[in-house]
Design goal:
The protein has 124 residues and is of the alpha/beta class. The chain has one domain (3-64, 77-101, 117-123). It is built from three helices and seven strands, in the order αβββββαβαβ. The strands form two sheets. A five-stranded mixed β-sheet has the order 1-4-5-6-7. It is globular and about 30 Å long.
Length: 124
Amino acid sequence: MIYEDKAKYTDILENSITYLENHGFENIKADTEGYETPKSYNKAGSNINITPDIVAEKEGRKHYFDLSLKSEKPNLLKSKWLFLNTLSTLKSSRFRLITARGHYAFTQDMLESINLNNKTLIKI
């Protein structure tokens, strides 16, 4: 999810964190109150910061999670997903998308447009 949508979807972010805790993830860092903020990455040549919504560990492997929710700026969201996918590949980590009811079709269309069709979604 992009920064402008954070206030609008805090409840879904909290539900996602609870879901991950219940499925054995540890050392959870989230971009919300009460949790340590994950590391941010700056886009070269602009003032855009990319911060994963949730970073957690399971069985010694780091996982990057991003919430896939309808957005006013789909291009910014696509570039964030491509960056996190590349970052996770370089660091031998995992990148997963979390989505909620009412956002499935939007998420599938976005994934098809950037050729990440092989991503399995976590549906909350």
